[in-house]
């Protein structure tokens, strides 16, 4: 077995309770009800991003029924197993588009909720507007991953690897210059890949740089990676990323 397969097997074994208890608590099992529950879309924070999120969900969320709610309503409902929650969650340095499952863990606060997926959207200090270009694609990616994770333990325990497996070397040019990448993305170019990087505006020691690649024709997220920012490895795609992504 390859190392990553062994790690998945170990994670599965660790997550299974005693057979005599008759319960299963793997990640995929916990996500099995995702399409049947209502996803509460939490509208809070930056008003421009909030309005954009609302618009993108209306036009592109198909994985489950959804409703919009305020932060106060989220705080009231987060302990209920009736709901999943989609929200832009600010963390030190980077804001993530995050899907959470409600439940009793919510009594411990937001960090106690079960995190289904978290994809980097923009520096928490604010961006240059590119986040609005790719928000819809990230909404699409979150729900695609959640649906895959409920069917596969391997996907459920390895989000980054699941997105990487979607990448195929087909000779499409990888566009990293922002204006060029965004234009191809917005035009649904049939033969290009758009690179998008998210990192803290003022990274501190140990901060991460997140790198994503979208197929411009389908707007699918086909590559997701990250690295720690250092004097040697700055913000942006590294040579090893480009080796994987280009012929």
The total count of helices amounts to 9
Number of strands: 9
Strand order of the largest sheet: 2-1-3-4-5
Indicate the proportion of strand residues. 15-25%
SS-based structural class? Answer: alpha/beta
Question: Can you tell me about this structure?
Answer:
By secondary structure, the protein is an alpha/beta fold. It has nine helices and nine strands. It has a five-stranded mixed beta sheet. Strands 6-7-8-9 form a four-stranded mixed beta sheet. The chain starts with a helix and ends with a helix. Residues 1-23 have low confidence and may be disordered.
Salient structural properties:
single chain; 247 residues; five-stranded mixed sheet; four-stranded mixed sheet; 9 strands; disordered N terminus
Topology readout:
Blueprint: H1 3-15, H2 27-30, E1 38-42, H3 47-60, E2 66-69, H4 71-77, E3 83-90, E4 94-101, E5 114-123, H5 130-149, H6 153-156, H7 159-164, E6 174-175, H8 178-186, E7 193-198, E8 208-215, E9 221-228, H9 239-245
Parallel strand pairs: 1-2, 1-3, 6-7
Antiparallel strand pairs: 3-4, 4-5, 7-8, 8-9
């Amino acid at each position: 077995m390859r190392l990553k397969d062994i790690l998945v097997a170990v994670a599965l074994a660790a997550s299974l309770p005693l057979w005599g208890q008759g319960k299963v608590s793997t990640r995929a099992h916990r996500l099995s009800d995702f399409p049947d529950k209502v996803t509460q879309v939490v509208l809070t924070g930056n008003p421009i991003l909030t309005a954009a999120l609302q618009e993108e969900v209306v036009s592109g969320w198909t994985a489950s029924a959804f409703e919009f709610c305020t932060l106060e309503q989220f705080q009231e409902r987060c302990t209920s197993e009736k709901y999943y929650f989609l929200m832009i969650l600010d963390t030190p340095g980077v804001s993530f588009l995050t899907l959470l499952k409600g439940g009793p863990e919510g009594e411990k606060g937001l960090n106690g909720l079960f995190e289904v997926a978290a994809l980097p959207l923009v520096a928490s200090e604010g961006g240059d507007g590119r986040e609005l270009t790719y928000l819809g694609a990230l909404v699409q990616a979150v729900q695609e991953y959640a649906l895959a994770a409920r069917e596969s333990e391997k996907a459920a325990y390895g989000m980054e690897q699941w997105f990487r497996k979607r990448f195929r070397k087909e000779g499409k040019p990888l566009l990293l210059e922002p204006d060029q990448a965004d234009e191809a993305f917005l035009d649904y170019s049939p033969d290009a890949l758009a690179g998008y990087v998210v990192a803290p505006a003022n990274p501190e020691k140990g901060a991460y740089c997140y790198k994503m690649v979208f197929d411009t024709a389908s707007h699918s997220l086909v590559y997701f990676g990250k690295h720690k920012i250092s004097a040697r490895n700055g913000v942006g795609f590294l040579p090893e990323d480009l080796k994987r992504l280009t012929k």
